[in-house]
Amino acid sequence: MKPPTRQEKSKIKNQISKLRIHRSYVFSQVRAIPIPITTIGMRLPPDRTDGKRVAASKPQALGMDANDRLRLKTYSTMMNSSILIFLTCLFFLFVMLTTDSVIAGESGSEFAIWPTTDDQEMPDIDGDIVVWQQFVEEYGDYDIYVADLSTTLKAGMNNPDDPLALIIGDANDQMRPAVFENIVVWQDYIIQEGSGDWDIMASDLSTSLKAGDSEREQPVMFAVSNIFGNDEQSPAIHGNIVVWQDGDEGDYNIFGADITDPASPAEFSVANFERDQQQPAIYRNTVVWQDSYFGDKDILAADIWQRNKPTDFAVTLAEFDQQHPAVWGDIVVWADNYFGDMDIYAADLSKLTAENAGNAENEIQNNNSAGSAVSAVNKLVSTEFAITANESEQTNPDIDRHIVVWQDNRNGDWDIFGYNLTTRREFQITNESHDQTNPAISGNTVVWEDNREGNLQIFAIVLDGPEAARCTSKPTGDVNGDCKVDFIDFTLMASEWLECNLEPKEACLPSIASSGVGIHASPG
């Protein structure tokens, strides 16, 4: 069966992408190429919305006569209006008293992890282990540095007075490190037969040093992917899976490898489309990346549970560029320039819903002839939301659990900001007059590049106080998921007062008295 052409797919996208929207997406099971098909709703950031739309309550009195139906509708409308007016007033009073504006950081002090006059860049962190690339002036190349931030002695890992655990390097460049638990991965420039290319290398830190070693020795390394003539770059790791971009500029693809057996990593293809698939991130079986298939940068993802047949899907195919994705759990975050400057947006993958494949196929066929090439399709709906849409630049987000961090220049230089997905509060992490960039987070610890000393160094801070608040147990009346019960929850509940989703609909109907509008439960 002949797959649809790029021109046919682009035509579909151009027809519906003039508004910033949520979308449903259809995918070919043959080539797994995303095709947007319907508009779900306009996406607007909260601080650029001219007005708000509230969904009205519309209880249906099916099976009743016209007079009873009118009485129930009148009664419901009166109750809804009274409750909504009262709770809305309380809600606005509550908002005035408890503003959600940016709060100042109340965390511990910032500190340089390992001060030096060499430039330190591209940090990553998992638990207490921090990794970064460092340009060593003495040798004129980049090496990988590993530090352990724990304050207790770990046999073979560090001295509590000196967090530096390892230096990974040789005469060539080692760059773009990533870490998960005891495994560090990086891109390594290998020269072979007079030419060089980038490969993906790794080391198990738990076996790199022996207890009692006084010197920082070279770790035992192994190749994740070292295909001669291919450039493998930008690795990411979670569990025993490493992913990276592979190929040449203009046709990068996403590959992965299972490194359960370091002596024989099992490679597999994640995304092999036209144009560039770049900058992958991974959480368990979910891989996300930025994709240039449609000409601008979009965020795509794949479920790699079946290594030989990853299921790819679109997170966002909006116009302009969406890039630098990160993922934790069901939440994907990225930088988005839809409004002419970079903002931070997110999508909740748990709200992707699979619908009837046959109906989706009919819909695409009715909209464009390219649908005739789709043999089996899934229709997926994702919900995007703004983390921050400030009119300055925000980019390079990272996420761990319920905390999102990014670099932000709203104050005239780059600072590190954060957002708590549970409390829905934005907060500023750094306010130093120089630039703080490229943050990464694990737990409550945030690391970043910082040039306050005149050269780039890796700084860190441990968040505490309200910005790091987490939900220990969800209250029964928490409607909006912020781990507290307040007027917002009451307002949301009132907006759906008397809504009923029982099937059959007749089960929703109360008994209507023959006189007045009194409503009582049916006997028995």
The level of helicity is 10-25%
Question: Uncertain runs with pLDDT below 50, 5 residues or more?
Answer: 1-66, 68-72, 94-101, 152-160, 354-365, 367-379, 512-524
Overall body shape: globular
The strand count comes to: 34
Secondary structure layout:
Elements: H1 6-16, E1 21-27, E2 34-42, H2 66-97, E3 103-104, E4 111-112, E5 119-126, E6 129-136, E7 141-148, E8 164-168, E9 174-180, E10 183-192, E11 195-204, E12 221-225, E13 232-238, E14 241-246, E15 253-258, E16 266-271, E17 277-283, E18 286-291, E19 298-303, E20 311-316, E21 322-328, E22 331-336, E23 343-348, H3 357-367, E24 379-381, E25 383-388, E26 394-400, E27 403-408, E28 415-420, E29 425-428, E30 436-442, E31 445-450, E32 457-462, H4 487-495, E33 511-512, E34 519-520
Parallel strand pairs: 3-29
Antiparallel strand pairs: 1-2, 1-24, 4-32, 5-6, 6-7, 7-8, 9-10, 10-11, 11-12, 13-14, 14-15, 15-16, 17-18, 18-19, 19-20, 21-22, 22-23, 23-25, 26-27, 27-28, 28-29, 30-31, 31-32, 33-34
